[in-house]
Design goal:
It is built from 2 helices and 4 strands. The protein has 112 residues and is α+β, with helices and mostly antiparallel strands. The strands form 2 sheets. Strands 1-2 form a two-stranded antiparallel ribbon. Strands 3-4 form a two-stranded antiparallel ribbon.
Length: 112
């Protein structure tokens, strides 16, 4: 009986160690997502903007964004977004993106 108890305790300890190792790996992986090398600067709307509103520096700001989830065509410099028209309504903290077409009245692409 005593031998059986020791075997059960040993197996339970090994399972506990393995489970704690798995939890450790998950935590390390999640923390790696917040490292500076996995983040990039993206221009986002600082305030809600309506369609065709001219974008000024007060309308936008740079924020750190995970590289893996940056939308295609996202703007990375505030200067690229200034003095352009919003191609659609933009919500605060939403990344600004360039659209290929149509062009605004100055021949510049609208922001998506």
């Amino acid at each position: 009986m005593r031998r059986r108890l020791l075997i059960v305790l040993a197996v339970a300890s090994l399972i506990g160690l393995f489970a704690s190792y798995l939890v450790y790996r998950v935590v390390v992986t999640v923390q790696a997502g917040g490292r500076p090398d996995s983040m990039a600067e993206v221009v986002v709307a600082a305030v809600n903007m309506s369609m065709a509103e001219t974008i000024t520096p007060q309308h936008v700001k740079l924020v750190a964004w995970p590289k893996a989830s940056i939308p295609s065509g996202a703007i990375t410099k505030v200067a690229d977004a200034e003095n352009r028209a919003a191609g659609r309504a933009q919500f605060a903290r939403e990344p600004l993106r360039m659209r290929a077409a149509p062009l605004d009245h100055l021949g510049e692409p609208l922001l998506a």
